[in-house]
Amino acid sequence: MRFSGKTIAVTGGGSGIGEAIVRRLAGEGARVAVLDIDEANATRVAGEADRARAFRVDVTDAAALAEAFTQVVSEFGGLHGAVNNAGVGGPFVASANYPLEWWDRIVAINLSGVFYSLRAQLPHLVAQGGGAIVNMASICGFIGQAGTAGYVATKHAIIGLTKTIALEYGAQGIRCNAVCPTYVRTPLTLAELNDPEVWQQLDARHATGRCATPEDVAAMTVFLLSEEARSVTGSAHLVDGGITAC
Ligand code: NAD
Predict the structure, then answer these.
(1) DSSP secondary-structure letter at 212?
(2) What is the Cα–Cα distance from 202 to 180, expressed in whole angstroms?
(3) Is 175 helix (H, G, I), strand (E, B) or coil?
(4) Is it the case that residue 192 has pLDDT exceeding 90?
(5) Between the N and C ends of the chain, which has fewer C-beta atoms within 10 Å?
(6) What is the pLDDT of residues 101-138, one digit of tens each?
(7) CB 245 within 8 A of CB 216
(8) From ligand 1's centre to the CA of 112, what distance in Å?
(9) H/E segment holding residue 217
(10) In this structure, which residue's CA is closest to atom 3 in ligand 1?
(11) Handedness of CA 77, 82, 83, 87 (dihedral sign)
């Protein structure tokens, strides 16, 4: 019960990796705020976990995020940690033809959404006397990937943002790290890739022989949020089965 008495917020907590993080945190005693644009999914996930509550919020709306975090703090009595996980994938198109509306959308959700979330969370964490933040990046924050300029650019940017927050707020007891998963079977990836043969080929590219699971990513995230990671900040942590090792 590493998180007994702690309140942790998870954006994009209504599906996939975020859902696994919510379950794991609740299982370890946390009160969990499940923030998602998909209210039905957020309510389902919160309903299945102990001490969890759903909040509908669009991470591209800075004012709505500020309001949501004020509500989280007033309902739960504080904020001790946050996982900025909400994100989208986008199309596979080479850059000259990458749709500009998708560029704007992916930057708004994957990058501005994380920055706006941080701005909404940091005053509460400072008031609380410290806390831990995890921003969800990707192996695409370490490497390039043809056809996914928007996704790769936003995930690289999240790592720089993570380091900057760690430097700015370390003295106030706040740690900030990024988690960088490899391919994970979730609604996000399955919407684009639903061919089992392609997944088998992806599995085979990993030293471990398989893609990661949402639970694998949740395990790293929860470690970084915990006191056991008190010396870990400003860094990006691969959960990639060795796919980027070569
Ligand atoms: P998912 O689609 O299962 O979950 C994403 C959640 O974010 C959904 O519940 C969705 O409603 C929510 N969301 C989307 N836009 C939002 C918005 N504007 N405001 C609030 N919530 C919003 O996807 P996932 O695979 O679990 O992805 C979670 C995170 O992990 C993303 O940041 C993604 O880039 C990252 N990631 C995923 C993989 C993978 O292979 N699945 C790999 C590396 C990184």
Answers:
(1) B
(2) 17
(3) strand
(4) no
(5) C
(6) 999 999 999 999 999 999 999 999 999 999 999 999 99
(7) no
(8) 14
(9) helix 214-225
(10) 16
(11) positive
Cα three-residue angle 166-119-172, rounded to 5 degrees: 40
| Residue 240 near residue 213, CB atoms below 8 Å | no
Is 0.85 surpassed by the pTM of this model?
A: yes
Taking Cα atoms as reference points, which of 171, 184, 160 lies closest to residue 234? 160
Q: Which tokens sit at 124? A: 């509460």
Q: Nearest Cα to 236, choosing from 110, 151, 168, 134?
A: 134
Q: DSSP label at 9?
A: E
Residue 110 CA to ligand 1 center (angstroms) comes to 9
* Protein residue with its CA nearest to atom 34 in ligand 1: 87
- For residue 151, indicate whether it is catalytic: yes
CB 17 less than 6 A from any atom of ligand 1:
yes
Residue with tokens 């988690």: 179
| Closest CA relative to residue 145, chosen from 192, 195, 95 | 95
Contact indicator for 174, 122 with CB cutoff of 8 Å: yes
Tell me which residue of 83, 116, 120, 88 sits closest to 101, measured CA to CA: 88
* CATH no. of 7-186+214-238: 3.40.50.720
Q: Which of 98, 116, 151, 183 is catalytic?
A: 151
CA angle 210, 216, 220 (to 5 degrees): 135
